[in-house]
Amino acid sequence: YRFYGKSEDGDEFNDAIRKLFFSFNVLMDRPLEEAVKIKGAALKYLPSIINDVKLVFDPVQLSNLFGNFIRSIPDNQLVRQKLNCMTKIVESDLFKQPECRDALLPLLIDQLSGQLDDNSNKPDHEASSQLLSSVLEVLDRKDVGPTADHIQQIMERLLRRINRTVIGMSRQSPHIGIFVACMTAILRQMDDYHYNHYINTFKTRQDIIDFLMETFIMFKDLIGKNVYASDWMVMNMMQSRVFLRAVNQFTSVLNRFFLDQTNFELQLWNNYFHLAVAFLTHESLQLETFSQAKRSKIIKKYGDMRKEIGFKIRDMWYNLGPHKIKFIPAMVGPILEVTLVPEPELRKATIPIFFDMMQCEYNFSGNRNFHKVRGANVLHLLEHCRKHKYLSASGEKFAWLVSSLLENLLDYRTIMHDESKENRMSCTVNVLNFYKEKKREDIYIRYLYKLRDLHTDCENFTEAAYTLLLHAELLQWSEKPCVPHLLQRDSYYVYSQQELKEKLYQEIISFFDRGKMWEKAIQLSKELADMYENKVFDYEGLSNVLKKRATFYENIMKAMRPQPEYFAVGYYGQGFPSFLRNKIFIYRGKEYERREDFNLKLLTQFPSAEKMTSTAPPGEEIRSSPKQYVQCFIVKPVMNLPPNYKDKPVPEQILNYYRANEVQQFTHSRPFRKGEKDPENEFATMWIERTTYTTAYSFPGILKWFEVKQISTEEISPLENAIETMELTNEKISNIVQQHVWDRSLPVHPLSMLLNGIVDPAVMGGYTNYEKAFFTEKYLQEHPEDQDKIELLKQLIALQMPLLAEGIRIHGEKLTEQLKPLHDRLTACFKELKKKVEKQYGVITLPPSLTERKPSRSGSVVLPYIMSSTLRRLSVTSVASSVVSTSSTSSDSTSSRPGSDGSVLEPLLERRISTASRAEELPVKEDGDNRICKLKRKEWSISKSQVIVEKEPEMELTSKMVTQQQEKNSSNKIPAGDLCFHSFQPCLSLGTSLNNGRGSNTKSLISAGSGRNGLCSVLPALGVCRVFLKKSKCGSRILPLGVDRNIWGCKY
Question: By CB count within 10 A, which of 289, 619, 624, 773 is most buried?
Fold first, then answer.
């Protein structure tokens, strides 16, 4: 400027500037390969002179010069450099002046339109988005003059192109965010006039339909797949606010152009309703999920946008008039989602839509039903239905059905995004059970696979298998084609139900294998094998299945499989969700999960809950409290052994499965004191409250927990408690003895601890506590009905001696130098204890089957578990067999009879057999605590431990030897009133036991004599014979101790 001098009009300087730009234009128009670097430099640095030059040069002319400069560049050359150059022009002070924008904006729009055109080969999205955002940023400022016309130009030329760019762009593109922001900025800066004008620019009705379709689909897609991070609250709220305003503007277009009978567009209206519902239910608008402070700020700045769009949905629905029937039942689901939003005003406004749907369908359908409508608030529906002339009865029934569905769906919706997968599983099961009951197999199967995915995520493979099994049960082993809804979500490409069921079974077996549920895997593999062998003749598949099954059998016997603990959990208080509130559940713990770990997991899931320290049921005050209370304690499963395993020597590895699986009843025992405490012996007043919990389904199942459906409580008297304790103790001793007999490598320390706790009276008090509490004349006088139970307890005490003796013998064989003092102490204490017990309660000898090693067929060792029920049955059978043998041998010889009126062994046999048959017909207690009922205890009087008694085939030899022994003892009659204790081998091998070399001290098994003076009876206990002789008060017969007095027909 100084070089050209200061003229009044500055013509020389202005001409020089024009010549300079003219030279640049000539340069830029030359072929690309010529002076390409100079061209790039001109585009890069020329905009930097704008702010200075416009001070001495007319800004509008300068804008025109730059416009001509850009136009001189061929279309497909230096595209990015050209766009960057225009961005710098926009960012300069020149573009802030309205007159300059009038000159530049058409050029900018032309360039952007070319880049965003559908036919553009390689659009530069990055540079285009930068230029567009810079333009919109300047237009949004308040200090740049009027911008309405400029917004209109951009709207007319670029809005639809930007929309299509967003629709076609991948959501993973790095440019998607800035293009959505640009589109939002354009819509935000548009006035109502702009919206009306823009619709008027379309030449045909189809163009308007296309534009609205594109916009509704794009909005719904952007709402469903957020472009911005969820924590970008301001950006998401701004976008929602702009979308809401745009949608409301377009609703007037729908009402104006597409509502009448001739021009109604069903798909367009359908897209609008789905967009509105998606907007209303979007997670960023659910204000209840935010803190109070955040909620207040959002409402103050943006308002509750859900109510605004919800009211608009209601108005648009009622505007449909006769077209409503076209949206039933398609719109029932979306409207249901609206009513599930926890906003009272919104729910009140939209729920009447359901009644309107019912009424509409009722009026339009020929059969006058409305079964397609699913869901509404029961109270509002009932209110509307009861007022209607024809819908009062059927509508009320439907409303209650919907109430159940809504309850499940509301719970499911509440926890859908919950971190606790356990809660999500519970609600999923509630929903799928509802749809199963209503025979909606398509939705039922959909939720089955949601549940399976939750289980696999948590590595609950057993539960995942049971879940898939529900799907398999819907299929048949047939070539019938699969209907589409029977195919699972991640569908196999199959054509028949048999093929699908086969693949499901293979997946289920794999899950059972991973969950160590080999018994269930074997069960399913048998079905598969039968199908392969007898239906499809796939021997290769049969071979694979049989190989897997062999592996499962081997795993059962050899693999380690820890038993899970079971926990009872009560959720008390109104603070819990409805599916937990004031309910008790039984939980199946994971492997090695302790109660402390389980409690910690519970309290982590419910951090505001208080842990209850008592196991007693809570009162009404806690149940109705607004707080949360959690009660947790361990329960014991009640084993439900299959019938084919009863009365048989079943290996312990097999029984272990049934101790913790296929169980539905659980017990919890709580001690309490009844009456005054005896300072000398607390056992006399210590009662047990035993609670039995019955769950809705057996474990394991499709969940790791099930609700308790039935609770029963009974009180166990101190004497019954003592009997149970002795039975369990004897069972424990016999099994640990067997384990050491079968496996000599087992460590001796558990055996040492068990023996020391029983033998040493300083540790547990010995049997003195029972003697003081129950074996006194005072107790018998106060409780004469307990006589049989006292005799049973004495038998159990006597039974413990041979078990302890065998245990101490094994302990001595495994003795180490460190354990020698303990063993000496055990031996001394046991010697005194045995002497006392045998003197007071009799002598019992164990059968050889308990202590002899028995190999299985394959040569491997099989360890049977000692079960009480089998012992009782075998003992009764042993008596019957023995007596039959004896009677048959001695029936021809009258001299062998004990009295002139006939042998009393025959009525004993008759009574025993009838007693056994009656006892077997007795129903099992409903509470399922696996305790033998009182009648069994009374008539059998046998220990709870099981012994496997082996029958010997030499029955004739046995009978002969018994007869010889009878004749030998006929001269040695036992004096009446004497009490004798004798030990024998098992009754079924009686002949052998009578000549076992036990010496002259062994008297007769059956002694001859007068019916009035003496009788010897055979009592079974562990396959052992005990002989009791005592004169009865009736004077006619000698009554054996421990035998039901009613059998003998006399009284004490």
Answer: 773
Higher-confidence residue of 177 and 887: namely 177
CA distance 1021 to 1023: 5
Q: Which residues contact 776 (CB under 8 A, 6 or more apart)?
A: none
Q: Report the C-alpha gap between 799 and 789 in whole angstroms.
A: 15
- Per-residue pLDDT at 800 exceeds 70: yes
Amino acid at 349: A
- The answer to whether 416 touches 424, Cβ cutoff 8 Å, is yes
* pLDDT higher than 80, residue 363: no
Q: Are residues 591 and 571 in contact, defined by beta-carbon separation less than 8 angstroms?
A: no
Cα 11 to Cα 139: distance, rounded to the nearest angstrom: 33
647 pLDDT higher than 80? no
Closest Cα to residue 454, out of 503, 485, 420?
Answer: 420
How long, in residues, is the chain? 1052
Within a 10 A sphere around the Cβ of 963, how many other Cβ atoms?
A: 21
Q: What is the pLDDT of residue 735?
A: 81
- pTM over 0.90? The answer is no
Coil vs helix vs strand at 1024: strand
Distance of CA 1034 to the CA centre of its chain: 65
pLDDT band with cut points at 50, 70 and 90 for residue 274: very high
83 and 77 Cβ atoms separated by less than 8 Å: no
Distances (CA, A) of 309 to 240, 304, 346, 899: 11, 9, 9, 104
Query: Do the beta carbons of residue 337 and residue 281 sit within 8 Å?
Result: yes
What is the rounded CA–CA span in Å between residue 1028 and residue 1038? 9
Which residues lie closer than 8 Å to 194 by C-beta, 6 or more apart? 148, 151, 152, 155
The phi, psi pair for 264, rounded to 5°, reads -65, 130
